[in-house]
Amino acid sequence: MSSTATVTQNGSAKTMKSQIVVKQDVPIPTPGPNDLLVKLSASSLCMSDMAAYAGHLGERAPVCLGHEPVGIVVEAGAGVVGFAKGDRVGFMPFKGMCEDCEECLSGQSRFCEKKVGGMTELHGGFSEYAIAAPLSTVKIPEGLTDEEAAPLLCAGVTAYNALKVVAKEQPGGTPLNIIGVGGVGHLAVAYAKAFGYRVTAFDIAEDKLELAKKYGATKGVNTLTLKDEDIVKTQTTIVISGAAPAYALAVKTTKNHGRIIAVGVPHAPLTFNVLDLILREVSIVPICQGSKQDLDESLKMAAEYGIKPTIQIKKIGQLYEGFQSMAKGEVTGRLVYRFD
């Protein structure tokens, strides 16, 4: 999966390593006038990378995965405002936005119809250099290392955005159910605690339930042994797990007129009864990562409240083994890869 590319520019050779689906030489990308060229230092492995690797998101090889990267700006295009060479940044994998449609003008540029997704090219989060769009980029606050910040660029902002949606209708100090407390889920527990919620964590793995308690869950429930009569319903249930049964459970753990916040993406048909949702007026509210503002807020909250993901630091050459471990469910927290 690794490759070393050599390209000659102005008479000097430049090389870069890139973790991609198949071996292929790739040149160091050249930023446009409104782009940032970032030399990456750390990048985290996400379940979305796993889904892309498995072909669920429509990617076709060759492609470089990775969308939780942190690094240093080494070149800023002439039209870039707000960033400069030497800034420590993280970015989401969206670029090419028009900056003039309703979504862009409202701060939701990740929904721009003209955007280009990050996992469709050869320069992604698992390459030494990548192109970042200023609209998708934020500065990393002091108090977070590169390795700690990387998982927050997708897992963290997604968890944070889910909690922002919860907070719009449910006050802090109230109980909240979170189903699935792995890589994204343990951060959802941490942000929920910062928001003031009393969390009950659900999972099938005892190590992940223990991790959830470490991050502030008041109770951990193993769903393999859970009986319906023992379920305590809450106004809101956040589903982080991508397992289809997690959504069937969420219907049972959510009160009448409540909301199920959908984060996890199942790859099997859902089995709950829609009529049950209708009769009890239970809504399903999907969450798609977050805006640049959400990302900035989530990083600042993490730095202020000491929200730091549980991570295992690896070398980029060990990426394939990480895919295997994650596929087997052997990873607690996040795998973060360094480029040095």
What does this structure look like?
- With 340 residues, the chain is an alpha/beta fold.
- It folds into two domains: 2-152 and 309-338, Alpha-Beta Complex (Quinone Oxidoreductase, Chain A, domain 1); 156-286, 3-Layer(aba) Sandwich (Rossmann fold), CATH 3.40.50.720.
- It contains ten helices and 17 strands.
- Strands 3, 4, 5, 8, 9, 16 and 17 form a seven-stranded mixed sheet that branches.
- Strand 14 (254-262), helix 8 (274-280) and strand 15 form a beta-alpha-beta unit.
- Helix 4 crosses helix 5 and helix 4 (155-167) packs across helix 9.
- It is globular and about 60 Å long.
- Mean pLDDT is 87; it is low at 1-13.
CATH class of the largest domain: Alpha Beta
pLDDT averaged residue by residue? 87
CATH architecture of the largest domain: Alpha-Beta Complex
Which radius of gyration do the C-alpha atoms yield?
20 Å
> N- to C-terminal separation?
17 Å
**CATH fold annotation of the largest domain:** Quinone Oxidoreductase, Chain A, domain 1
Shape: globular
In short:
With 340 residues, this protein is an alpha/beta fold. It has helices at residues 47-53, 102-105, 146-149, 155-167, 185-195, 206-214, 244-253, 274-280, 292-305, 319-327; strands at residues 2-9, 12-19, 36-44, 69-76, 88-91, 94-95, 116-117, 129-132, 137-139, 175-179, 198-203, 219-222, 234-239, 254-262, 283-286, 311-315, 334-338. The protein folds into 2 domains: 2-152 and 309-338, Quinone Oxidoreductase, Chain A, domain 1, CATH 3.90.180; 156-286, 3-Layer(aba) Sandwich (Rossmann fold).
